[in-house]
Amino acid sequence: MAGRLLLIGATLLSGLLAGATLDRLVVQMPAWRRVGSRPWAAYSRHADLGNGILLYPVEAIAIFSIAAAIACHRDAAVPRSAEAALWVAVAAALGGLLATTQAAPRMLGLRKLGDDPVALQRAFEGFDRWGAVRGALQMLVFLSNLWAVAGILRSRA
Question: pTM here?
Answer without folding.
Answer: 0.89
